[in-house]
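Dear support,

I submitted the protein below through the web form. The confirmation email said the job was done, but the results page showed an empty box. After a refresh the structure appeared. I'm attaching both so you can tell me whether what I see now is the final result or a partial one.
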Amino acid sequence: RRFLQFTISSPLDSLPYNPLKNGSVTEIRDSLMSSLNSSEPFYKNKALEYLDKVIPAVRLIYGHVSISQLRRILQQREEQARLIKEITKTDVPSRAEILSSLQMIFSTDAKILSGLSSQLASLDNYEYGNLLSPEKDAEQIDLVEAIGSHAVVYFDVNIQLSRESSIATGKLILEDLKAVSGSISSGKIKRPECMNLFIDEAACIVDVGFIDFLTKCRSSCFAVNMFVQTIAAFDELGSAFKAQLMACTTTKIIGRLDESRSVDDICAVAGSYDSFTESYQTQKSLFGSSEKTGNGNYREAKKMRLEHDVVKQLESFTVVVIQKNPFKLDLIEIFREF
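What the results page shows now:
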């Protein structure tokens, strides 16, 4: 199989990758907005309006959309003028409407779009921005082609290197995967036999909307494998997200955990079973030991399949595996040979 690598840690060893290459205008707009931070609804709506107007024009003239193109057109008047000039040369039926929309959006106060501008600039940076905006015909990673050819694709966004832009890049990759999955489900792309996705430090790049993809990706034959240090890493996304995440995953592999809430969650997933418990009245003897003073009783009780102390005291190279259907709970040693 071909091995395709995108890495911001070592740009010289990386293939370029355009996360805005696949999808409709709306999908490209939503992908970009989902990866960026926009706390104020007013500025978010203005950014959406800008992208709604500019993306169709860019695709019409250049045949593809990239982060670098959008950044230059937003920040440079000469690029705006060039785009309008190229539109006037076309004979598309909607030319007048496109020109009117562009002229209106380009007259927007630059301060209103400053948030979008700065975040696009952080992605189109000096270190690896060129990797995210390759030329249309340049050799690059295309997820649709990679799936079709059964290639192995490795993305390294190294969150420790430049946290904000790295997280935004990771979210763009996930949004591209969502677009590809949607195209497979709708029949636009041939359904693969199976596509395994491995997401390390998943809590850093997934958002609340990711759960929708997680619940539907099976129809596209996507198998998602997510790795985190602890379930508590998802606390920022809310309890509803964590509940749906636990419900959606078919197999859970757990190493040693110390955080009590995460241990509670895992043990609750494992469930309980009916058992019988004997109890007796006792008293302390003269020597401090306990001794039975009655016949006691025998009662039915629930017992945890997975005890909390088992999870808290797992040895190195030992994990708990909980399989959903058919249900299976086991302790497994891994990587011992290494």
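Response: this is the final, complete result; the empty box was a page-load delay. DSSP finds 13 helices and eleven strands in the chain.
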